[in-house]
Amino acid sequence: MAATRRVTGERQRRRTTRAGTLLSEAAIVDCALRLIGEHGAEALSARRIGAALGCDPSALYRYVTDMDDLVLAIADRLIGEALDGFDPGAYEDWSTALRAMAFRLRDAYRDHPRAAAMASYRITRRPNEFRAVETGVGLLRRAGFDGREAVRLYLTFIDTVLGHAALEAAQLALPAERADSDRRAWTAAYQSAAADSYPQLAAVRAHLPLMADSTFEPAVDLMLSALRAQAPSPSASPRPGPEPPDSGGPAQQLS
């Protein structure tokens, strides 16, 4: 606890580096994202970030507790970029808003494909992640799901979204020649599969190039179709406030 208070206090005392950068957690995250984008995950070290910012590596630990803490800050930054300007109330219904949220997350991952691979499976415990969970659970409660179902279904939905978004990001992070080789496999190697050994592949040979397409949009739409099919009657009253303790609300289920 003492260490946490020390880091929090130090974060409030911003310092200027030798390169003239005003040191802060945001500046460190900016630098880390740039280095990861240029060099990959191996660039995430206090030495390299300190050198890029023009400060002693130890100065970074006034703002992040360690490199894992920085990874969590990066993950939360990507969520924040996705939510920037997002107003779920501007959409005609809960499922349209949830779809827009999914595509915003995908776009943030595509903007930082190398960082996305490090971020997709982490729990940041930071404000932007809180906003995302608050928004997603709120939209599902707006659909009429009770607290327990809203939490369970949000987890299922967001894991599907982040998994497919991370897969796309990983493909974008591949060197161009490897990415091209993988795409060509569906129009070359798989086209020559012997019918006697692979009769099902031979039967759909003309359609195999579709395997190079993104699965993000169909996966999201399948999930939303399932959620709409399970949603209570449209006449169900939304419950924006806390649920009583015996109703299976989020606080009870996650305690």
List the helices and strands and how they pair.
Blueprint: H1 2-12, E1 15-16, E2 22-23, H2 25-39, H3 46-53, H4 67-83, H5 94-111, H6 113-119, H7 127-142, H8 147-173, H9 176-184, H10 199-203, H11 216-230, H12 250-254
Antiparallel strand pairs: 1-2
Q: Which structural category do the helix and sheet elements fall into?
A: mainly alpha
In total, how many beta strands? 2
Spatial order of the strands in the main sheet? Answer: 1-2
The total count of helices amounts to 12
Biggest sheet character: 2 strands, antiparallel
Strand content: under 5%
Topology pattern, helix = H, strand = E: HEEHHHHHHHHHHH
Can you tell me the CATH architecture of the largest domain? Answer: Orthogonal Bundle
Radius of gyration: 22 Å
What is the CATH topology of the largest domain? Answer: Tetracycline Repressor, domain 2
| Helix percentage | 55-70%
The top level CATH class name of the largest domain: Mainly Alpha
The overall pLDDT, averaged over residues, is 86
| Count of individual domains | 2
Assign an overall shape. Answer: flat
